[in-house]
Specification:
Layout lengths: L15 E3 L20 E4 L3 H9 L15 H4 L13 E3 L22 H8 L5 E3 L2 H9 L4 E3 L9 H9 L11 H7 L9 H6 L4 H4 L3
Parallel strand pairs: 1-2, 3-4, 4-5
Length: about 210
């Protein structure tokens, strides 16, 4: 099952998709040409939906990255603390471009729960990590995508934003500009369709 991440270029026939997306980078902008059938329950956004439908696959109008469900799946486990005015969560491709030892930088490497706790300390989250943005917005923290390099295609970010009802989000090109711009418009996302699309049936069938 493909759920979190821009990893559908790894998919094979008959794999199940629940919330994952197309990456968009050269060589990862489409499915493997051998893939003819997928069981798609939800995708990250309409851009991924369009790619899959062009391949003749059936894709429902259910969008959203499953990381958006964190507050619903882990009720009460993670709390906002608001102890830092801002933080930056870099994509792995951007690590070499910043001072990773800075107190304002949250490395994407390390345990997932510690990354979440650190993000929830911020009043504003700047990120080139897609899931830095997603985690922040899932918990209601203003967030802005900062595009420091061409290491990642814009495709997956636009896919996420459009899947949460936003079609004109402006990107920042530096941390300074990101701080000036503040967070993007809040996401417009109803978590229930994504929750309802979870493929619990594949477990029931194996019992």
């Amino acid at each position: 099952m493909f759920a979190i991440g821009s990893v559908l270029h790894y998919a094979r026939n008959n794999d199940l998709v629940w919330g994952s997306g197309i990456n968009g980078r050269p060589g990862q902008e489409d499915l493997n040409r051998r893939v003819q059938t997928l069981d798609v329950r939800a995708v990250r956004g309409p851009r991924t939906q369009e790619v899959l439908r062009r391949r003749g696959l059936s894709v429902p109008d259910v969008f959203g990255d499953p990381a958006l469900l964190l507050p619903h799946l882990f009720r009460g486990r993670f709390q906002r603390r608001r102890t830092r005015p801002w933080v930056f969560v870099p994509n792995l491709h951007d690590m070499r471009m910043i001072d990773a030892t800075s107190a304002d930088v949250i490395s994407p490497l390390g345990s997932w729960n510690r990354r979440i706790e650190a993000i929830l300390e911020a009043e504003l989250v700047l990120a080139s990590s897609l899931h830095g943005l997603i985690v922040a917005e899932a918990y209601g923290i203003p967030a802005r995508y900062v595009r420091l390099s061409d290491g990642e295609s814009e495709f997956k970010y636009r896919d996420y934003y459009e899947g949460t009802g936003r079609f004109d989000v402006e990107f920042a090109s530096s941390l300074e500009q990101g701080r000036e711009m503040g967070g993007a418009a809040p996401l417009n996302f109803n978590h229930q369709p994504l929750m309802d699309a979870f493929p619990i049936d594949i477990w029931r069938e194996t019992r």
